[in-house]
C-alpha cells in the first residue's frame, strides 16, 4: 500500500464516512447532541484563549472521527513525544514490557477495531477497551499496569498489538479527537510503518510515537517477523478535567460493543 494518492484514498474515505454514519445510529443522536452542546460550553475558555492569541482552528479533510470533533484542540497528525514525560518511562522500561508480552502472547485475540478488508487478522491483548479496564489482563502484566497508571489513559483502546508479516491495516479513523494514541515499538518493527494523513513514520523498537487517530491512518508491515507494539489511547492534553469526566460518563453508558468491529455499511448486500 505505502503512500496513497488522493484518488486511491478516496474509496477508503467513503468507507470511513459510512462507518461514522453507522456509529451515529448506534449511539442515540440525542446523547451525541447533548455531548457536543456541553463540549461547546466547557471548551469556551480554551477557544477564547486561542482566539485572543490569534490561533485559528484548522479544518482538515483527513480528520474524520466517528463522533463530531471537539472544538479548540490542537490538531495535527503527529505530536512531539517530548510533550509527554511518561513516554520516556515506557521507552526506559521496554525490556520489562516485552518480557510481559512474551508471557501473554498465546492469549491474543482479534482486535475489536479490525476490518474485514485487512489482508491478515489484527490481533490484540487488551488492558482497556471502550473506556473499561480488563482487570485480569492488567493483573497478568503488573509492570505494564504500573506504567499505564502514570498515563492519563482514556481506556478506548489500550493493548498489546500484533500485525503479521505482510499485514496491512487499511485506512481508518478512531472514535474521537478528544484523545491521542501512543505506540511503543516492542518487537519485529523492521519493515513496519504508519501513515497518518499521508505523513509516514517508521516503527522503531524501544521508541514511542504519538499521533492523532481521528485522522485517516493506515499501517503496513513488510518485515519478516510479527510486529508487536504497546498501544495506548490517552486524553488530548488540551482537554480539561470536566470535558474528560463528561466523555468518560458517556462511555460508561454506551453499549459494550459500540466501537467494536462491525461490517461496513458499504459491504452489506443491496436489496
Q: Order of helices and strands, N to C?
A: HHHEHHEEEHHEEEEEEEEH
What's the structural domain tally? 1
Task: Point out poorly predicted stretches.
Answer: none
CATH class: Mainly Beta
Q: Which secondary-structure class do the elements indicate?
A: alpha+beta
CATH topology: Jelly Rolls
Percent helix among the residues? 25-40%
Largest sheet: 8 strands, antiparallel
Outline type: globular
Instruction: Give the CA-CA distance, first to last residue.
Output: 32 Å
Number of helices: 8
Number of strands: 12
CATH superfamily name? B-lactam Antibiotic, Isopenicillin N Synthase, Chain
The CATH architecture: Sandwich
Mean pLDDT: 88
Q: Report the radius of gyration as a whole number of Å.
A: 18 Å
**Proportion of beta-strand residues:** 15-25%
Show the helix and strand layout.
Blueprint: H1 6-26, H2 29-42, H3 44-52, E1 78-79, H4 85-92, H5 94-104, E2 109-110, E3 123-129, E4 132-133, H6 135-140, H7 142-148, E5 157-163, E6 168-172, E7 179-187, E8 192-196, E9 199-202, E10 208-211, E11 217-221, E12 227-235, H8 241-253
Antiparallel strand pairs: 1-10, 2-3, 3-4, 3-5, 5-12, 6-11, 7-10, 7-12, 8-9, 8-11
Protein described:
The chain is an alpha+beta fold. The protein has one domain (1-263): B-lactam Antibiotic, Isopenicillin N Synthase, Chain (Jelly Rolls, Sandwich), CATH 2.60.120. The chain has helices at 6-26, 29-42, 44-52, 85-92, 94-104, 135-140, 142-148, 241-253, and strands at residues 78-79, 109-110, 123-129, 132-133, 157-163, 168-172, 179-187, 192-196, 199-202, 208-211, 217-221, 227-235. The strands form two sheets. Strands 1, 2, 3, 4, 5, 7, 10 and 12 form an eight-stranded antiparallel beta sheet that branches. Strands 6-11-8-9 form a four-stranded antiparallel beta sheet. Helix 2 (29-42) runs antiparallel to helix 8.
